[in-house]
């Protein structure tokens, strides 16, 4: 496995996902606050949810990266890299809106306590945090710690995969926001 390529691929995916999310902050108020007919979240609520989910995932990523760096002293990184293969197919469904039942914890549900500018700034900081962790573990150290991910039965995943998961989660909600926007446009034409 070319760990350096994996890290670059994750950085590229993060950039695309976060750039797409960021564009939604520039939408007009009507689009941002449109309540879809299915009773789902508004785009503003989705953006807050992305921030909240990132917040909690980054706690796990931080713990994992610290443990991975500590494990570097006791484990053979070269053997880990040699034996590692990234199963991208296992993760693909995470980025697809509606691909499976996803029951999120209550603490990841939007409460409307932050304004759009705050959410945008926080999500931008979260992007930088992800890049910092990837730079910190630039030689493959992220393989040296695995944590259980229950979503879609992913099982034990390493720190790089957690960061990729975070990026896929944002991508999933970009699709949801696009669906909201389409419904908004249809309603305006009526």
From TrEMBL:
It comes from the Bacteria. Pfam families: DinB_2. InterPro entries: DinB-like, DinB/YfiT-like. Residues 28-177 form the DinB-like domain. This is DinB-like domain-containing protein. It comes from Chryseobacterium formosense. The lineage of its organism: Bacteria, Pseudomonadati, Bacteroidota, Flavobacteriia, Flavobacteriales.
């Amino acid at each position: 496995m070319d760990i350096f390529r994996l890290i670059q691929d994750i950085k590229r995916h993060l950039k695309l996902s976060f750039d797409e999310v960021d564009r939604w902050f520039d939408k007009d108020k009507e689009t941002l606050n449109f309540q879809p007919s299915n009773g789902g979240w508004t785009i503003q609520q989705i953006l807050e949810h992305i921030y909240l989910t990132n917040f909690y995932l980054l706690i796990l990523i931080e713990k994992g990266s610290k443990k991975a760096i500590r494990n570097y002293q006791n484990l053979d990184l070269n053997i880990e890299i040699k034996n590692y293969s990234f199963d991208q197919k296992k993760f693909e469904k995470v980025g697809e809106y509606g691909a499976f039942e996803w029951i999120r914890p209550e603490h990841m549900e939007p409460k409307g306590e932050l304004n759009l500018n705050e959410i945008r700034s926080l999500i931008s900081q979260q992007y930088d945090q992800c890049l910092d962790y990837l730079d910190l573990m630039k030689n493959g150290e992220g393989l040296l710690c695995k944590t259980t991910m229950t979503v879609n039965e992913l099982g034990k995943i390493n720190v790089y995969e957690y960061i990729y998961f975070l990026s896929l989660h944002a991508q999933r909600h970009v699709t949801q926001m696009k669906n909201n926007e389409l419904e908004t446009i249809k309603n305006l034409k009526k």
